[in-house]
Amino acid sequence: MALTFRRSWSDPDLDQYRDTVVRFIDEHMLPGDEAARHRGHVGHELWRQAGQTGLLCTDIPEPWGAGGDFRHEAVLYEEMARRSLTGMNASVHTIVAHYLLNHGTDAQRQRYLPRLVSGECVGAIAMTEPGTGSDLQGIRTRAERRGTGYVINGSKTFISNGFLAGLVLVVAKTDPTQGARGLSIFIVDTADCPGYRVGRVLDKMGLKAQDTSELFFDDVAVGPEQLLGGREGQGFFQLMADLPYERLIIGVTALAAMEGAYQATLDYVRERKAFGQPIADFQNTRFKLAEMATEITVGRAFIDRCVEDLVAGRLDTATASMAKLWGSEAQGRVVDACVQLFGGYGYMNEYLVARMYTDARIQRIYGGTSEIMKEVIARAL
User: Fold this and answer.
1) Chain-wide mean pLDDT for the chain?
2) Which ranges of 120-162 does DSSP label H, i.e. alpha helix?
3) pTM over cut 0.90
4) CA 226 from centre of chain
5) Looking at 125-134, 140-149, 156-165, which range is the least confident one?
6) Residue ranges matching CATH 2.40.110.10 in the chain
7) Is the separation of the CB atoms in 162 and 214 below 8 Å?
8) 15: closest CA among 66, 72, 77, 94?
9) Coil, helix or strand for 215?
10) How many whole angstroms separate alpha carbon 6 and alpha carbon 289?
11) 167-173 and 123-126: which strand pairing?
C-alpha cells in the first residue's frame, strides 16, 4: 500500500511552503550531495542560499526571523530526511538560534540572530568532550576570569557543523566546585579568533556529508558580553530548557526517514522480479510492507500530536523523550527491514536505503541515548 503521509498540523499555507522547500532541495541540495559526501561538508554557499530562500530558523519571531512556528521547521527537516540529505544540519543551527532567543540578552539577539537566519553564519553547540557525553557535569573545559572577561581552555568532539561554524556556543565550567550550577555557555565568534582551532572532520559511519569535527580552545579570550544571558552558572539549566525541542526534531526526522525508506522500498519491490514475479507479490514481502505501513501510520499520529503540543507550548520533557526514543528505535527497525527487501542492492551506497541505514544509527545516540530517554521517561511515571 502507498501511504499518503498526511499531517494533522499542516494547512494550505504550509503545503505551499513545502513546495518551496522541495524545489530548493531539488535545485540546490540533491545535485551536490554526492560531492558533499566525499568532501565531508556542504560548504558555506548552500547555507547562504538556504538563508536567502527563507528556509533557516523559520520559527524565530520578528524582527529577527520570519515569524513562523515549529511546523515550518518540521517541513524542512522532513523533506531532507525523506531523501537522506544530512549534510546541512539545519536543526542544530536552529537550536543555536533558540538558545540565543530564549536565554540571550537583547544585545546578543540583535547581534547574532540575523546572521543565523540569513545563513551568513553557521551555528554549532560544543558540549561533548572526549571523556564526557551525556554526563554534562563531567565537562572539563574551563572558562576562567581574566580581567573583565574570560579565557576558555579545553577541547570538544563530535560537534555537528563544527567545520563550517562561524558561531559556537561553548559549554564550560566557570566554577568547578558547584557541579551543575558551575556550568556556563559562551558565544564564540570563530572568525579571526586567536586560540580557536578546528580539528579533523571526523570519519563517521554515516552522515557523510555532515561536518562533524573536533574543536580546540587554547586561551580563547571572550568578553563578558559573550556569556549567554549575562549570568554565570546558568548553562545547565539553559541546556535542559531546550531539550524537548531538540528531541522532537529527532522524532520528526526519524519518522520522515521511515516514510522515505518505505516509499523507495515499495517502488523497488514492485519493479524487481524473482522467480518470474515481482517481489511485491510474495507473501513475506506483503506482510513486511504491512508491518512497516502500520508502524509509520501509528507513529505519524503520535509525532503529529507532539508537533501540535510544541506549537501550543505544552510539550513536556517526558513526552518529547518518548518521541525521540520511539522514533529513533522504530527508524532502525523499519530501515533495516527495507534493506532486507532490497537484498544485495540494499547494501550498495548508490541506493537510498543503504545511506539511510548508516545514517539512522546515530539517531539512538545523539540528543541523549535511548537509555537516557528511558531514564527521563521513567522518572516522570
Assistant:
1) 95
2) none
3) yes
4) 24
5) 125-134
6) 123-233
7) yes
8) 72
9) strand
10) 18
11) parallel
Cell readout for 301 is 499520529
Q: Where in the chain is the domain with CATH 1.20.140.10?
A: 242-379
HSE of 225, CA atoms in CB hemisphere, 13 A: 8
Amino acid at 8: S
Phi, psi (rounded to 5 degrees) for 197: -140, 135
Q: Residue 248 pLDDT more than 90?
A: yes
pLDDT digits (tens, 9 = 90+) for 333-366: 999 999 999 999 999 999 999 999 999 999 999 9
Q: Which CATH class is domain 123-233?
A: mainly beta
Distances (CA, A) of 180 to 118, 176, 229: 34, 9, 17
In the predicted structure, residue 24 carries a pLDDT above the cut 60: yes
Enumerate the active-site residues: 246
Say whether 83 sits in a helix, a strand or coil: coil
> Could you read off the pLDDT of 226-239 as tens digits, one per residue?
999 999 999 999 99
12-118 folds as Butyryl-Coa Dehydrogenase, subunit A; domain 1 (1.10.540)
Q: Is the pLDDT of residue 169 over 80?
A: yes
The residue type found at 257 is A
- pLDDT tens per residue, range 175-227: 998 888 899 999 999 999 999 999 989 999 999 999 999 999 999 999 999 99
Radius of gyration of the chain (CA): 21
Q: What is the DSSP code (8-state) at residue 195?
A: T
Q: Is the dihedral of CA 363, 368, 369, 373 positive or negative?
A: negative
The CA distance from 90 to 73, in Å, is 9
Whether the CB-CB separation of 101 and 60 falls below 8 Å is answered with: yes
What is the average per-residue pLDDT within 298-322?
97
Cell triple for 364: 539512538
Question: What is the predicted pLDDT for the residue at 2?
Answer: 55
